[in-house]
Every structure is written in structure tokens, then in C-alpha cells.
Specification:
The structure holds two protein chains of two kinds.
Chain A: E1 2-9, E2 13-19, E3 25-32, H1 37-60, H2 67-98, H3 109-125, H4 127-130, H5 142-161, H6 165-181, H7 188-202, H8 214-221, E4 226-234, H9 250-261, E5 267-271, E6 276-281, E7 287-292, H10 301-311, H11 315-323, H12 339-348, H13 353-375, E8 382-385, H14 392-406, E9 411-412, H15 420-434
Parallel strand pairs in A: 1-4, 5-8, 8-9
Antiparallel strand pairs in A: 1-2, 2-3, 5-6, 6-7
Chain B: H1 17-34, H2 36-39, E1 43-47, H3 54-59, E2 62-65, H4 67-76, H5 80-89, H6 98-108, E3 124-127, H7 133-146, E4 149-152, H8 165-187, H9 193-215, H10 228-238, H11 245-264, E5 269-270, E6 273-274, E7 280-285, H12 293-301, E8 305-310, H13 332-340, H14 347-360, E9 365-371, H15 375-378, H16 381-392, E10 396-401, H17 411-437
Helix pairs in contact in B: 1-10, 1-11, 4-6, 5-6, 8-13, 9-10, 9-11, 12-17, 14-16
The chains are: A alpha/beta, B alpha/beta.
Chain lengths: 439, 438
């Protein structure tokens, strides 16, 4: 079947959306941009294709929405993710062993390799737990999941084996970059098959009676996803080997994407990794006006990233902590460079972490409000997109400030708002194809 | 991320004959300045482009040295970044006009001009345009440095959009009582009003040809780029050549060159040769960026965007709206000239001018280049943009750079906005086509 791909190469994450000929979303994929847009684009594209398979599986069950089918598909996805994870763990282990070389390891190569082998034995042993039903993961990126496990296990292993922890850390740091920057392995269908076999083995009830889960899965796997047209957008777009016909500005893509999600959108705010954009669109999703931050990325998503690092917290934990505050600190600077200093300063003054965080979220939104007003203000309806739209504390401040400045306005946030740019790009791809463009 | 890995080499930029001639003139003037002491040709007056009274200065055998132009040249030659940092080390804040800091930094390093030779100390500072408050502060610093005579010709702001009789009389009085006597004293040359008339006559002649050239952009395709190319065109007349035979020759030569391009249906010459198909016609507001001038320009011509009219090419005189230096009013005419400069105009006047440009030059919209360190230009720019948008119904966009501080030029950011703007124009056009078809 024909598919249309939109890829949004952000500074932090790279997103892909796959559309079918009717303009329905088939799949979404996301990965960290890892300063390597080419690999990131290919990983995100592949992730979207994987996601699309699940839509196709669902279609094979012809809209059957029984608990059994739901549970089966969920199990299949978890099992598939585990397959993927184990494959990458394998690669990481080999790479780590290969990187035990040089002066630093002189005379201790074998012992270090043994220690690494032990780390990976334990990492594998805990893998299925990571992907068990109901298991919570702080991130879906391999770097984060494998990394946090490796570091925890390595501490124990270092202690037991006498190999210094920093040596084990050094090997990992070097290797994870190599692993991440390798283009993803193919053979998706086989991974699905292995995943399916595991699911059926673990839960034979799925194939109770004469029910055969293999058949619909095989049918769906048999559908070829033909990439009919691709459009790239985002910060890294010019680095890709795309011709001009395959590149659209992220501002246009965000405008169109927001319009597709909420057709009555007139104002869009996108807070991404290093850009904050205020966009005004008309009733067709065409951009009327826009403003964005200048080269200074103060108050953008990256800022929250630095704060999270500084506080030794996950990015996703910042919002919930800030939500606990009822007395936000007053913070004027959202300078990313001084983010750490600002934070330590406040902590030293004895302010509570949640109050500081709440203040930081407010400061970010204040900056966004200024960009919005410069772009022409806020008109009903208002759609908030980008990674920061997932942060409840930011959303809370935004709602407050929009109401104070513009009164009652419908505020839309799609759970998939991070894909807005990629969605717009995929629609541009679909249109370009309809107008006779070729991939 | 950078958009172009290769640093543009000015040597391999393509230029048309008039650009080469212009460069020679500017280089000649720097040589003249450097040799002024040894040749005994005269004394030096430092002054600014807006309100530049070159005809009057020449009446006293003074040679004109323009600190802003020095800063621009330092920017184009990638020297301003170091100068700006030196000035900051010396205590000038990050927010101060970067022309000033480039100038201060250059002085601190021995006042070696952009041509690699020492520039002479000024004998007099002539401040004849006061709409930019920073200019006053700048000259205070220069006065401190050189300890020389300073003349201030106060130019009233035309806040009501009109030049009144009163304003002109006020300025003529200053000319008679302050400016001319001081210039006589500094130079030792007696003022001769007929000599001034003669220069003014020459000015008007060159001004006619300049206007013709600027208005040639009404053709489709436009034979010139009225912003990036326009910078070359205004050089002589905004600088030390207005009122000279050299300027008359240059503008005649330029006009013939442009006439030829119009006859052949050619677009503008860019540093990479003839521009391809003209896809977007823009009006620009604000100065350009000088540290990445060619890279900035390339972002336009690579996309087929040509600037058909700009406000920046009017900072040293809004000739296209009718003003000419008039030898019959030798003292009133410099006053009117100073009063009518672009940045001395009220915001409604600027809006009128830009909206009219969009209509008269059949442009696709307005692009504002907002300068980080120039309050004189930037104040009110967003309002100007909104108003022009509203009046013309054409889309506008906003980019942010700086004059000569390379730290404020973010190529990826600027390119992102420009490309978005061009695609926005495309989308609007196809939207209109769909509407039209329906």
C-alpha cells in the first residue's frame, strides 16, 4: 500500500508519521536525535513503520474490540519491544567488549571483559521484567533504558570484581554512541514472528479452540508499506539528502499539523527543544504569521532538560514535582546557560525544589507568551504542541496566562502533540504525491 | 548546525562593472584619508551617514570620515567581531550599538582602517543628525578620545509627519551661527556660498540617476536587488562623494548598466552570478547584517527572492519621494535633507512609505530585519509590520540579526525563518488560486 512519510528532525527528538492514501495516520515513531540526523530519521521512520504494523494487525481483526484482541495486541507489542531491546543489547555487548582496549585497560583486558559479560548476563536476566505487563519505563529510548540498567548493575559488578566503576562507565559511554549511530537492523517481520511465538507460548489461551493468531498477523505482515513520498522538516532538515521538493519549513508543518488535529485552530504554540514558535493559521491551516525565538534558546525544551540533569531527575518527573507547588518561586531568567546557577542559587536560599520548578515552568511560559503576542496574540482555538505540551506544570501555567491575557479560549492539546510537525510534513507528502511528485 | 560550511571568499564574488567601480571609489577615499596629513590636502571631519552634509564639508576643504562606514567595512572584512569584544572588555555593555563598539575597538588597536592603514585623527566632529541618541554618545566618546571641536546641528524629529517652516529656520539659524563659523575656524577656510551651490547642483544630478536606478526595480524581473545590491549603490552618495563629479559619473555609469539589464530582461547580479528565476519580490525594512552579508544575501537569491525596495537605502536621503538638493536654497536644502531622512520620519510616515512600496513595486510582502543592537531602527518595527500587513493584505516576516556583531548572526535560525516566509508566500498564492478557482 502507498504510504506518505513526514519526518520532523528536532534538536532533541526526531519524529516520523506515516499516512495512508486517505490521510489516516498509520503509524508514529520517535527517537532521540543523537546529533546524527541521518540515523535518527531512519530509526524514527522504522519506528513509525512498526507502529503502522499494529494498525494493520488491528485492521486484520476487522474491528473486533474484544478484551482478548486488545490484550493480545498489547502483549505482542511488549514482546516485540523486548525482541528489539535484546537485539540492541547484543549489539551493545559486542561493542563494549570491542572497546576494551588501550592503555587504560592494559593488563586488565580479560578481567574487564569478564566484568562486562557479567553485567550483560544480569541485564538480560532483568530484560523481560522491563517489558512485563504494567511495567513503567521512564523513557522508551534504548539509550535511557539500557543505560540506567547498565549503570546500576555496573556499580555492583565493579564492587564484586574489583574493576574500577569508571572503567566500566567509560566503555559504556563510548559504546552506546556507536550503537546508537548504527542504522537500525532490518528483519522486522522475523522479530514480529519471534515476538508472536513468545506471546502464544506464554499465554496459550490466545489460540484456544481453533483460533489462529498467526494467520492474521502473517496477513498484515504481508502488506508492503511502500514509501510513496517523503517530506522532511525540522531543524536538521537541510542535513538530509533530500531534494528541495522534499523539504518543508517546520513552521508550515506545525501550522498544518495543528490544523489537522484541530481544524478550528487559529493560533499554535510549539515549544520544542530549541525553538519556541507562535504561529497564526487560517481555516485551511495556512500560516498567516509567525514569530520564534532568536538564536538564544532560553526557555525552550532544552532548558528543562538541563534543569532535569542538574536535579538528577528524569525530564518527565519535572512536571509532576512542579505540580506539587502552591507557591511558585519568582524567576525571571530562563537562560539555558545559567539554568544550573539559577537553580543552585535558589536551593542555597532554602527554597523548595517544587517551588523552584514551578517558577521555572512559569518563566518558560511567560517567554512563550511574549513570542505569541509578537506573532499576533491568541485567537480561538488555541493549540499547544511540542514536547513541552506533555508537561502538566507547563500546561497549567499556560492555561492561567492565556485566560488572564486573552480570556476564555479553547485550548487543545493532543496526546500526540509531539508529532504535530511530522504530521503536517506527512500531509505535505501526500499532497505532493497527489500533485504528481515522485518519491 | 551551519548552513554553509565554506566561508565566502570576497575575492571570488562576481561583481558587475558598477560594483567594481564603486569599490575602487571607496578604496580611493580610504587612501585619501590615510594620506591627508602627508599631502596636506586638508583636515578631517568625522560625521554620520544620516544628515551627512558632504557639500558643506567640502566647502572647507575638509575630508569626510564616516565611523559607521568604517564599522560596516570592518564587518564585511570580518574584523568587527574582535573590535566589538575589545570594546566590551573596555567596559561597553553588550547592548550598546555594535557600530560604536566596532569603532571604539578599532581606535583602541591603533585606528587601522579597513584598508589596513592608519586613519587620521579627526579635526572636527560634526553631528548633524540627532534622531539616533547613540550618535550623540558616540561623539562624546570620540571627543574624549581626540579632544577636538565638536559641532552639533540639532535636527528636530518629524513626529507629526511634517517638516515645518519653523524647523527649517531653526536649523538654518544653527548653520549660520554655529556650524559654519566653527567649520571656518577649524579649517581656516572662508565659507563661500557659491561654492556650496555648485556642489549642491552636482548632488542633485547624481540623485536623479540614483532614483532612476532604485525605481528600475519596478520592472519584472527586477534588474537590481534594492537591498543587498542597493548597499553598493548608496555607498558613494551616502558617503564622501555626494556633490562631486565622481558621483555624477558613477551614477550615470550605473544607470546605463541597469538600463542595459532592463533592455535584456535580466535580473540582478549576485555574488554567484545572475540570479535565476525571480520567484519572490520583497520590500525590506531595517539594515542588513554585515558580518555575514554574502551568506545572508545567498539565502535570498538561492530561493529566487529579490528585494525590490528597502527602507535602509533611504537612511542617507529619501530621494525617491521627491527630495533633491537645491542650489537655489543653499542653507535650507541641507536642513530639509536632514529632516527628511528615513529614521527621522514618524512611524506613520514609515508605514505609509513601506505600504506604498509594496503596492508600487508589486511586492509579495514585507520582511523586517530587526537589529539586536539598534534601538533607533527596531523600536516600533513590529507595529510597522502589523500595520503594513493590514493595509496591503500581504504576508510579512521578521528576522533578527545584528549590524556588525557576528555573535548575533545565527544562520540556521535566519534561514529557517526566511524559508518559512517564502513557503508561506507560496502557500498563500496556491490558496488564492484554489479560492479563485472555487
Amino acid at each position: 500500500m502507498k504510504t506518505f512519510v513526514g519526518i520532523d528532525l528536532g534538536s532533541t527528538t526526531t519524529k516520523a508519521v506515516l499516512l495512508d492514501e486517505e490521510g489516516e495516520v498509520l503509524g508514529r515513531g520517535i527517537t532521540n536525535s543523537r546529533s546524527n540526523y541521518k540515523t535518527a530519521a531512519s530509526v524514527a521512520g522504522q519506528e513509525a513503520a512498526i507502529d503502522a504494523r499494529f494498525v494493520l494487525f488491528r485492521r486484520e481483526f476487522a474491528g473486533e474490540t474484544s478484551d482478548l484482541v486488545e490484550d493480545f495486541l498489547n502483549d505482542l507489542e511488549r514482546s516485540f519491544r523486548l525482541e528489539q531491546f535484546l537485539e540492541q543489547v547484543e549489539d551493545l555487548q559486542e561493542t563494549c567488549s570491542g572497546n576494551v582496549a588501550g592503555e587504560r585497560f592494559a593488563g586488565r583486558e580479560a578481567a574487564t571483559r569478564d566484568a562486562i559479560g557479567e553485567i550483560f548476563i544480569r541485564l538480560r536476566a532483568g530484560a523481560s521484567e522491563l517489558f512485563a505487563r504494567g511495567a513503567k519505563r521512564k523513557s522508551d529510548f534504548f539509550r535511557d533504558i539500557a543505560g540506567s540498567r547498565y549503570l546500576t548493575i555496573a556499580e555492583d559488578v565493579a564492587h564484586e570484581s574489583g574493576i574500577p566503576y569508571d572503567m566500566l562507565l567509560n566503555v559504556y559511554d563510548k559504546s552506546i554512541i556507536e550503537v546508537e549511530n548504527r542504522p537500525p537492523a532490518g528483519g522486522m517481520a522475523d522479530k514480529f514472528r519471534r515476538a508472536l511465538d513468545r506471546v502464544v507460548a506464554e499465554t496459550p489461551e490466545y489460540e484456544a479452540g481453533s483460533r489462529d493468531m498467526h494467520e492474521p498477523v502473517e496477513r498484515a505482515l504481508g502488506i508492503e508499506l511502500e514509501e510513496s513520498y517523503l517530506v522532511g522538516t525540522g531543524y536538521g532538515r537541510v542535513t538530509l539528502p533530500f531534494s528541495k521538493d522534499h523539504i518543508r519549513s517546520e513552521i508550515l508543518c506545525h501550522g498544518l499539523g495543528a490544523h489537522m488535529m484541530f481544524p478550528d485552530t487559529r493560533t499554535v504554540l510549539d515549544i520544542g527543544g530549541q525553538d519556541t514558535k507562535g504561529i497564526q493559521v487560517d481555516n485551511r491551516g495556512i500560516v498567516d504569521n509567525f514569530q520564534m525565538n532568536d538564536r538564544c534558546a532560553a526557555g525552550c525544551g532544552r532548558y528543562l532538560g538541563y534543569i532535569a540533569d542538574e536535579m538528577n531527575m528524569g525530564l518527565h518527573e519535572l512536571g509532576p514535582m512542579a505540580m506539587k507547588s502552591d507557591r511558585p518561586a519568582r524567576i525571571n531568567s530562563t537562560c539555558t546557560v545559567f539554568a544550573g546557577a539559577e537553580l543552585r542559587d535558589r536551593l542555597a536560599l532554602g527554597e523548595k525544589r517544587e517551588d523552584i520548578l514551578a517558577g521555572l515552568h512559569r518563566a518558560i511560559i511567560l517567554r512563550a507568551m511574549s513570542i505569541l503576542s509578537r506573532s499576533g496574540g491568541v485567537s480561538d482555538q488555541f493549540t499547544f504542541t511540542g514536547g513541552v505540551a506533555k508537561n502538566d506544570a507547563a500546561v497549567r501555567e499556560l492555561k492561567k496566562l492565556i485566560f488572564e491575557n486573552y480570556g476564555e479560549v479553547t485550548i487543545n492539546i493532543d496526546p500526540n502533540s509531539i508529532y504535530t510537525g511530522a504530521l503536517g510534513a506527512s500531509e505535505f507528502a501526500r499532497r505532493a504525491h497527489a500533485e504528481g511528485g515522485t518519491a | 548546525m551551519t548552513t554553509t560550511a565554506k566561508r565566502p571568499d570576497p575575492k571570488d564574488a562576481l561583481k558587475d562593472a558598477s560594483m567594481v567601480k564603486q569599490k575602487d571609489m571607496m578604496a580611493g577615499h580610504y587612501e585619501r584619508l590615510s594620506r591627508v596629513e602627508e599631502t596636506g590636502e586638508g583636515k578631517v571631519a568625522a560625521t554620520f551617514v544620516p544628515g551627512n552634509l558632504n557639500e558643506l564639508i567640502m566647502c572647507f576643504d575638509l575630508v569626510n570620515n564616516l565611523p559607521e562606514v568604517n564599522a560596516i567595512q570592518s564587518g564585511l572584512r570580518k574584523q568587527s567581531g574582535g573590535y566589538v569584544m575589545d570594546a566590551e572588555k573596555a567596559g561597553h555593555s553588550e547592548d550598546v550599538c555594535t557600530y560604536v563598539k566596532s569603532d571604539i575597538g578599532m581606535m583602541a588597536r591603533g585606528n587601522i582602517g579597513p584598508h589596513g592603514k592608519k586613519l587620521p585623527d579627526p579635526n572636527v566632529l560634526l553631528l548633524s543628525y540627532t534622531g539616533c541618541f547613540t550618535f550623540m554618545k558616540w561623539f562624546e566618546l570620540l571627543r574624549e578620545q581626540y579632544n577636538c571641536e565638536t559641532i552639533m546641528l540639532h535636527t528636530p524629529y518629524t513626529g507629526d509627519g511634517k517638516i515645518t517652516r519653523n524647523m527649517i529656520e531653526y536649523m538654518v539659524k544653527q548653520l549660520k551661527e554655529q556650524v559654519i563659523p566653527t567649520l571656518e575656524r577649524v579649517s581656516g577656510v572662508k565659507f563661500d556660498i557659491d561654492r556650496l551651490r555648485e556642489y549642491l547642483k552636482k548632488s542633485a544630478q547624481a540623485e536623479d540617476d540614483l532614483v532612476w536606478v532604485l525605481q528600475s526595480a519596478k520592472n519584472k524581473p527586477s534588474p537590481i536587488d534594492a537591498y543587498f545590491g542597493g548597499i553598493y549603490y548608496i555607498g558613494p552618495i551616502f558617503g564622501a562623494f555626494r556633490g562631486t563629479d565622481d558621483a555624477i559619473d558613477y551614477y550615470r555609469f550605473l544607470r546605463e548598466e541597469v538600463e542595459d539589464r532592463v533592455a535584456k530582461g535580466l535580473g540582478p547580479v549576485t555574488p554567484d552570478g545572475d540570479m535565476g528565476e525571480e520567484k519572490y519580490r520583497l520590500v525590506t525594512e531595517g539594515p542588513p547584517n554585515y558580518t555575514n552579508f554574502r551568506q545572508f544575501w545567498k539565502m535570498f537569491y538561492d530561493e529566487g527572492a529579490v528585494v525590490v525596495a528597502s527602507s535602509y537605502t533611504k537612511v542617507g536621503g529619501v530621494y525617491d519621494l521627491g527630495f533633491r538638493h537645491d542650489p537655489d536654497k543653499p542653507l535650507e536644502t541641507p536642513a530639509e535633507y536632514c529632516l527628511g531622512g528615513y529614521t527621522n520620519r514618524s512611524l506613520p510616515q514609515r508605514v505609509d512609505m513601506l505600504a506604498n512600496y509594496i503596492n508600487e513595486y508589486e511586492a509579495d510582502g514585507l520582511l523586517v530585519n530587526s537589529i539586536k543592537s539598534c534601538n533607533s531602527f527596531s523600536a516600533g518595527q513590529l507595529l510597522i509590520m502589523r500595520e503594513v500587513e493590514k493595509r496591503t493584505g500581504k504576508p510579512a516576516a521578521f528576522v533578527e540579526t545584528d549590524l556588525v556583531d557576528p555573535r548575533y548572526f545565527s544562520a540556521a535560525n535566519v534561514k529557517n525563518r526566511l524559508e518559512s516566509y517564502f513557503q508561506m508566500i507560496d502557500q498563500k498564492r496556491s490558496g488564492q488560486r484554489i479560492k479563485g478557482a472555487a
